[in-house]
Amino acid sequence: MFGLIGHLTNLEHAHAKAHELGYLEESEQGLDLWCAAPPQVVDHITVTSATGQKIEGKYVESFFLPEMLSQRRIKTAIRKILNAMACAQKEHLDITALGGFSSIIFENFNLSANKQVRNVELDFSRFTTGNTHTAYIICRQVEQYAATLGIKLSEATVAVCGATGDIGSAVCRWLDRKTDVQDLLLIARNQERLNNLQTELGRGKILGLEEALPLADIVVWVASMPQGVDISAIPLKNPCLLIDGGYPKNLDTKLAQEGVSVLKGGIVEHSLDIDWKIMEIVEMDVPGRQFFACFAEAMLLEFEQWHTNFSWGRNQITVEKMEQIGAASVKHGFQPLLTV
Ligand code: NDP
Q: Per the count of CB atoms within 10 A, which of 5, 114, 319, 328 is most buried?
């Protein structure tokens, strides 16, 4: 059985959902209530592959909210993720994806040193970040949607915001090795990591956001930001493809420049309806079929019985592993989302 560990977008979203579900008192409470809530299994899921194979899974809500990072409640954020992992393990889930910020908190705060959660000794081989499949899906979105807009990769400049991250660096590796993309622009804050990536790739220009965006035909946004940024003052090319792969969404979707297409990045669409309720909560256009590629990775590992932490650690995603998970993704009927 597979598992998914998820969280809501922000406190406002949490209030709205609590209100919709009839928890009127909870819908008016501040962050403290969410800080105190223990993790819970809130959905039972059945997925049918395009091959006809069926698998079962559970969704664990961690009750983490991104405001816990910005309001200096780091200890609470860490507790939320570890408790959700312990909950998944107590439920005997064989492979569980750490969705959204869960894997970022795990890595950034070195939680591999915290194996013991009360009476549960965490077995990290039962968890995956899902980042290999996410990076694969984003690359396929670049390749396929650029063609729809008439953007030729051989003449295109691609800016990757969050280039030195786990997903961003994998996207750069794929674009470098598997496509004939003309130019790569690398954006992040830490200069040393940018230099290391540039050395590894043997190409790519390191630029700031405001310099890079006006030059880009395609922007892949995979920075880990707790809140969206407004880039409406930066002039973009026409046409320009913006792939927003962050969760919560990194870009202000009010962006209304002519010729700019914004595609939700790292989202898959399954060829068959999935039996679950949870994706209605995260507001997908087609909740029965569309969801995060990292969650799909746990499903793929369960379909293939690859019960291992397929994506783990930071900046270790190879093009070969992206090809491997990509082949499983196609086989089981997952496609990159291609509707803006
Ligand atoms: P990482 O923490 O590994 O990398 C984040 C990257 O963003 C780094 O390059 C970091 O570099 C950069 N960054 C952070 N803040 C800023 C900033 N203010 N300006 C410019 N660059 C910045 O994250 P992941 O690769 O694991 O995840 C990236 C995003 O993808 C996250 O939003 C995550 O939630 C989302 N995600 C989506 C999934 C899906 O299924 N769709 C699955 C998993 C993750 P530096 O700190 O040097 O600036």
A: 5
Q: How far is CA 147 from the centre of its chain?
A: 23
DSSP 229: B
Whole-model pTM: value is 0.95
- Nearest atom, ligand 1, residue 293 CA: 40
Mean pLDDT of 93-109: 94
Q: Is the CB of 251 under 6 A from ligand 1?
A: no
Give me the half-sphere count of Cα atoms (radius 13 Å) on the Cβ side of residue 210: 2
For helices 191-201 and 166-178, give the axis angle rounded to 10 degrees: 20
CA 12 to centroid of ligand 1, rounded, Å? 22
The CA distance from 324 to 53, in Å, is 19
Question: 190: Cβ below 6 Å to ligand 1?
Answer: yes
Distance from Cα 181 to the centre of ligand 1, integer Å: 22
CATH class name, domain 135-266: alpha beta
Mutation pick for ligand 1 pocket among 111, 167, 219 (CB with most ligand atoms within 8 Å): 167
| pLDDT recorded at residue 252 | 62
Q: Ligand 1 atom closest to Cα of 225?
A: 15
Q: What's the CA gap between 135 and 143, in Å, rounded?
A: 12
Per-domain residue ranges for the chain? Answer: 2-131+268-331, 135-266
Q: Which helix (H) or strand (E) holds 326?
A: helix 319-331
Q: Is 225 in the pocket of ligand 1 (CB under 6 A)?
A: yes
Ligand 1 pocket check for 166: Cβ under 6 Å: yes
Residue of the nearest CA to atom 18 in ligand 1? 225
pLDDT of residue 336: 98
112-142 pLDDT per residue, tens: 999 999 999 999 999 999 999 999 999 999 9
Q: How far apart are CA 287 and CA 178, in angstroms?
A: 32
pLDDT at 48: 98
3-state secondary structure of 13: helix
How far apart (Å, rounded) are the C-alpha atoms in residues 271 and 158?
A: 29
